[in-house]
Amino acid sequence: MTAETDSIRIEPAFEPAAIEIPGQVGERIADLYGVETVRTAEDWLAALTTVLDSTDGEPLGVADLCTTDESPHVLERDGERQAYQCVYDPMIVPFLTDEPAAVTTVCPTTGETVTLEIRDGAVDVTPETAVFSIGVDASGATEPPSTPAESYGFVCPYGNAFADWAAYEDWAADTDAVTAAIPLEYGVSLAGELGRQMAESGE
Length: 203
Description:
alpha+beta; Bactericidal permeability-increasing protein, domain 1; 10 strands; Alkylmercury lyase; MerB; lyase
């Protein structure tokens, strides 16, 4: 951590079983995927397994992430710029490719820029007070998603970075979804683990 940049360096050191999914979000994920309970990231990833494996034996890669033409969530690497639909997708890319990259996003409440410098398997986050959101569409799905694209549609719009917890709470109060804020450490660990799961999908 440095006073000059007000940043903090985070490594994806948490195992999925140690990352708790808050109650209402876990319940909605369980309902969505037709499983009994989702209390941890390990449970969530297990629920995702059937969706990630529906790729005809081909592992998921960078091209399968949710890109868009314009978005607050931007990945910059090798002089190229790509926007994504949620903050986790550009965070996943460096863990998939094992190459350094910068992610910039905008707090939807304050308009403050949140920056993530990803290299050597860790992330420098500015500001150090930033938190991440996870969430699920609150509307009831009649059937579990059967493809990665369908699954992304339920969760991607609700992945954001916020300047701090108060900014998240202001956003959540006006958001028509089941959401929760998670600490920096959990967000980075979740991105790293999702990248690993994608690389192993289809095996």
